[in-house]
Every structure is written in C-alpha cells, then in structure tokens.
Amino acid sequence: MPAALASPRGRSAAAHVFGTVLLWSFVPVVVKQLQPYNLGISLGRFVFAVLALAGIQALRGRRLFAFQGSRGVLLLGGVAMAGNYCFFNVGLRYTTASAANLVVQVEVVALVLLARWVLGERWTRAKALGIVVCMSGVLLVAWDGRPLHTLLRAQDLPGNALVFLAGCCWGVYAVCQRLLARTNSTLESLTALFLVSMAVTAAVVAVLGTGGDRPMPAIILLWCAVLGVFGTAASYVLLSRGIALSDATTAAMMTTSLPLFTATEAHLVLGESVSRWTFLGGSIIVSGLLLVAHEEAPLLEDAPEG
Q1: SS3 content of the chain, % helix, strand, coil (to 5)
Q2: Residue 299: C-alpha distances to residues 9, 127, 238, 245 (Å)
Q3: Whole-model pTM?
C-alpha cells in the first residue's frame, strides 16, 4: 500500500473522496430518468442542499450563513457551480449518457491545471504521469470498445458542448471552494456557495422555465430532495474534507474512479454486463491513482489538518 494511503491522514482523505464518488455515481442515472425537467432539477438540488446544510449548522448551534473571505471568490464559485449543474443537466438531454460520461472528465483536467496555477500545488513528473495514466483509463472505460461515431455523433455535439462547459465550471468551483476553506469551515463555505448557486439557478429558471411543459410532479420533487441531500450536500461535504486532507489534484484523481462505481452499480442493481474494457480501464485508473498517491506521501504527512 502506498505510504500516502497507509497513513491515517491518507486513508481518511481517500475514504472521504470515494464516499463522494459513491454518492455521485447514481446521479446521472436519476437525472436521465427525470427529463425533461432539467433546470428544475438543478434548482431543486440546490434548494434541498442549502436546507440540509443550514439544518446541520442550526443543530450544531452555529450562526447560519456565516461567511468570511473574498466576496468575489464566493460569487465566482457560486456562479460556476450553478453553471456546472445547469449545463450538465440540459446537456444530458441532448446527448447520450456514455458520451456525457466521457466529455465531463474535462472537469478533472480543469481542476488539475487551476490547482497548479491558482493554488500553487506541487507538481512533479511522476504526478503528471499518474494524471495521464488515470485519464487514459477513464477514456478507455468510457469508450468501452464501441465505434467512436456512436459516442461523438454530430447530433450530439450541442449536448456534448454543454457538458464540456459544465466540466470547466466545476474546475473553477472546486478551486474557489479550496480558497474559501482557508477562512471558513466546510459547512460555512458550502452553504454560502450553494446559496449563491441557488439564486443564480432560480434566475435562470425564472427566465427559461424548469424545462417541462407543466409543474413538476411530486415524485420529481421527492427525487430532487434525495439528489439535493445526498448527491449534493453530503457528497460535497465529503469532497471538501477530502481536499482539505490531501490537495485538490489528488482528490481530483480519486474522482476518476467514478465510471468504475457507476459500472459496478449498473451490474449489481440493473444486471448490466461489465466488459473487458471496463476491467482494463479500471486497472489503469488504479495504477494512476497509486502513482499520484505515492507522490503525495510527504505532503499528506507534513501538511497541517485542513
């Protein structure tokens, strides 16, 4: 086991990030089934996420919506997060889930680059190699041996472009979250960010509507609550803690295991087959993760608690 994961700090970081991935893995399947209320789902997730986070702070006796730090970073992060949800949910309507799963991985690349340029995170050749290996495995899992034209068809280009923008927005959000975590607790920074995201998404919905031709049924509101509490609030609390215990780049690399979680759940729950390409891609992803984890061993042992 790599030293970075053998230490209590490394194991805790990995547990938090993989918990995030587990919660994220069911989101695309649910969202795909709830179309066409794409923008309404985005707003619902933020509403229930804010309620959940504010409720936790209230139970702990903390002041609600407390925030310190740069208002500009808060605004940028909130707008970026709203863009991530809106672009992805709408884009998923106009492309296939397989193609979206491939294109959205640009979020990892965006976060890695921004973490280097904005946060000044450590960069080595071995770490860069680990990142390339991880992304190669992700692409292999997403490809799954199918003809490329079935993944990137001309009629899917608008949807894929929106998903691409969603991934870029997520990278911006993650860096802003990291910056805000320097002066705020996880709950404080997330609640403030999601509050801004909720306001921005509400404005979009007010102009464009929820995406459906009638009010959202009760069952969709129920699923919005599930997605908001677990797929948004709980998952981002875990991710923020994982980033605090390691760094943004390492956490981003761990999230590349998302296709493996999704494939496993589809096999166990839906009975879908898992191809040899998924196994091969998964092995490559794990190899890349081990490279990155090995490079982060000194950082995880020496860095103060986040």
Answers
A1: 80, 0, 20
A2: 10, 12, 20, 10
A3: 0.75
For 49, what's the count of Cα atoms within 13 Å in the CB-facing half-sphere?
32
Query: What is the rounded distance in angstroms from the CA atom of residue 249 to the CA atom of residue 122?
Result: 9
The model's pLDDT over 152-205, given as tens digits with 9 standing for 90+, comes to 566 667 877 888 899 889 889 988 988 888 888 888 889 999 999 999 999 999
How far is Cα 138 from Cα 169, in angstroms, rounded to an integer? 20
Give pLDDT tens digits for 284-302: 777 776 666 665 544 434 3
Read off the pLDDT band of 130 (50, 70, 90). Answer: confident
Burial 118-127 (b: 16+ CB within 10 A, else e): ebebeeeeeb
Retrieve residue 81's tokens.
């997060």
Separation of CA 261 from chain center: 14
Rounded Cα gap, residues 248 and 254, in angstroms: 10
Tokens linked to 161: 């472009």
The whole-angstrom separation of Cα 113 and Cα 248 is 10
Concatenating the DSSP letter of every residue in 247-265 gives: -HHHHHHHGGGHHHHHHHH
**Which candidate, 252, 209, 216, places its Cα nearest to that of 116?**
252
